[in-house]
Write a sequence for this structure.
């Protein structure tokens, strides 16, 4: 497992930050310079929160 998890959606990144997850850094996408990739530290609670977000958006 890597030390960070890339997030490609701004709304998911914002949702995670509202839940007190710390944004490590962000940078432009290598393939689409108009998009930004957000990086969060990989933890089990982060992965659970992403799964919860995906369940809410269905």
């Amino acid at each position: 497992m890597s030390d960070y998890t890339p997030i490609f959606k701004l709304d998911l990144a914002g949702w995670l930050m509202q839940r007190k997850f710390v944004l490590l850094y962000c940078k432009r996408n290598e393939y689409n310079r108009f998009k930004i990739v957000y990086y969060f530290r990989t933890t089990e609670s982060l992965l659970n929160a992403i799964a919860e977000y995906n369940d809410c958006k269905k």
